[in-house]
Amino acid sequence: MDEDKYDVIVFPGVYSPSEDTYLLLDSLEITPEEIFLEVGSGAGLVSLAAAKKAQTVVSIDCSLDAVRNTMENLTRNNLNNNCHVIESDLLDALNNSAKFSLIVFNPPYLPDDGEHTDLDHALVGGKTGAELTQRFITQAVNHLVLGGRILVVLSTLADRDSIQKLMIKCGLIVETVSEAPLFFEKIQVLKGTLKEDHKETVL
Predict the structure, then answer these.
(1) What is the DSSP string of 6-51?
(2) Which of 25, 27, 70, 171 could hold 198 in an S-S bridge, CB 3.0 to 4.6 Å?
(3) Contact predicate 185/178, CB 8 Å
(4) Tens-place pLDDT, residues 169-193
(5) Out of 54-58, 116-120, 148-152, 164-168, which region has the weakest mean confidence (pLDDT)?
(6) d(Cα 118, Cα 159) in Å, to the nearest integer?
């Protein structure tokens, strides 16, 4: 998907759309009936693409700057009518009854290498690079309708196996839907589809 289709600005300190953003965009399959949730919306490019097609879009970020950035870009592109933007640590601010057909997350996914920068909050996903994604999965699966999907971006530098095993444990059917080489790693998009006979997960 071409960013030039949208009028997008990026606020200082907010993660700018990058290769992983476009890989996630290219992996999206959105129907007009979709109830869509983006976690970690950043500047909001993925939410913009979803808002063009989905019935309802909810965008979440733990950064107030990112929340404001997403709202600004939705407004600039006249795509804010079916959208709600929330400041939240992952899905903590959502009511337990909130359900979605598609939840996507391009998380901080790099392992902590001990060197710190101002963008660590957008890049480092924990000691192994998987911890934040694991916390997201355990929350997100309980906000999916049966047959709903999770899309999550990860790096081969992180503990991919632990993420895939957790998704399976949570009742998701897992597949890799896209990947791209990036410097010394590959970035991948994993899709987890909630089984129709799934019972709510308590881990």
Answers:
(1) S-----TTSPPP-HHHHHHHHH----TT-EEEEES-TT-HHHHHHH
(2) 171
(3) no
(4) 999 999 999 998 877 778 899 999 9
(5) 116-120
(6) 23
For the stretch 96-113, pLDDT in tens is: 999 999 999 998 755 555
What residue has token string 């490019």? 45
Q: Around Cβ 121, how many Cβ atoms within 10 Å?
A: 13
- Report, as an integer, the average pLDDT of 71-85: 95
Which residue reads 């059917």 in tokens?
Answer: 173
Q: Which two tokens stand for residue 121?
A: 């909050």
Tokens of residue 60, six digits: 């979440």
CB contact set of 156 (below 8 Å; sequence gap of 6+): 185, 186, 187, 188
Could you please state the CATH topology (level 3) that the domain comprising 3-194 is classified under: Rossmann fold (3.40.50)
